[in-house]
Design a protein that fits this description.
Layout lengths: L1 H24 L8 E5 L5 H10 L6 H8 L9 E5 L5 H10 L4 E5 L6 H10 L5 H8 L24 E5 L4 H29 L3 H14 L6 H13 L5
Antiparallel strand pairs: 1-2, 3-4
Helix pairs in contact: 1-3, 2-3, 5-6, 8-9
């Protein structure tokens, strides 16, 4: 009886090792390299499923088994993975943060300091590095009139892809000002400026005040109207 139990245990062990070897240590081997994005909200289960769907791993369960403990250490970003890589090699690349590009989402209403803190949390740049870059507006080639000091209010919130080989702070600021030029300067300002009689900088200042005062979305028009009324009567904000 004991011999049979021992044989069965050995068989189960060998089957388990065989499964792990097949699922974890052997690469798929064929196919084109694939781009995989690890976003902040991506779970291990979700990523394992995507790797399987794209032909990069053989088995989702096997990948989750080896990645479960390491997953909290995985760096966010865009990875270029090849089918001739083993799942272990893919996981190591994610943990080491060897990305092709970073994806950064800057929420609406974020100040320069908050954007700098966001980059610092991701380990992409220090807060001071970003703030220093954001005060060097004179170096930027923009179509809209540049402020004399910092770019507070001139960086458009959106999701941006940043090449890992470039300076994160300077590239992000470049992309955000280009988006500002496209959406605000060429779009909103050109259509609304004649009605308000305000300069671009005055409108940005007004928008910043509204953003700082409003707690809810529906409060913004009311606050903006009150501030415009003060300006129309010659009162200071």
């Amino acid at each position: 009886m004991r011999v049979r139990i021992a044989i069965a245990a050995c068989a189960v062990f060998l089957l388990g090792m065989g499964f792990l070897y097949w699922a974890v240590l052997l690469p798929v081997g064929k196919g084109q390299p694939q781009t995989v994005i690890i976003a902040k909200e991506a779970s291990l289960r979700f990523v394992a499923r995507k790797l399987k769907e794209r032909g990069l791993i053989r088995n989702e369960t096997g990948f989750r088994m080896i990645a479960r403990r390491q997953w909290p250490k995985v760096r966010l970003g865009e990875y270029r993975l090849r089918p001739d890589m083993t799942p272990l090699q893919m996981l190591r690349k994610m943990v080491d943060g060897k990305v092709e590009a970073y994806w950064i989402t800057v929420p609406e209403g974020f100040t320069l300091a908050q954007i700098g803190s966001l980059l610092a949390e991701r380990g992409l740049a220090t807060r001071d590095e970003f703030l220093a870059a954001a005060t060097a507006a004179s170096r930027l080639d923009t179509e809209f009139p540049k402020p004399t000091g910092s770019l507070e209010g001139y960086l458009f919130p959106d999701t941006y892809r940043l090449d890992a080989s470039l300076d994160v702070s300077e590239t992000l600021i470049l992309y955000m000002t280009q988006r500002f030029d496209e959406v605000v300067w060429k779009g909103l300002f050109k259509s609304q400026a004649p009605e308000t009689g305000l300069t671009l900088h005055e409108l940005i200042t007004l928008a910043s005040l509204v953003e700082g005062e409003a707690k809810k979305e529906d409060e913004r028009p009311v606050i903006a109207g009150a501030l415009m009324n003060r300006l129309s009567t010659g009162k200071k904000l």
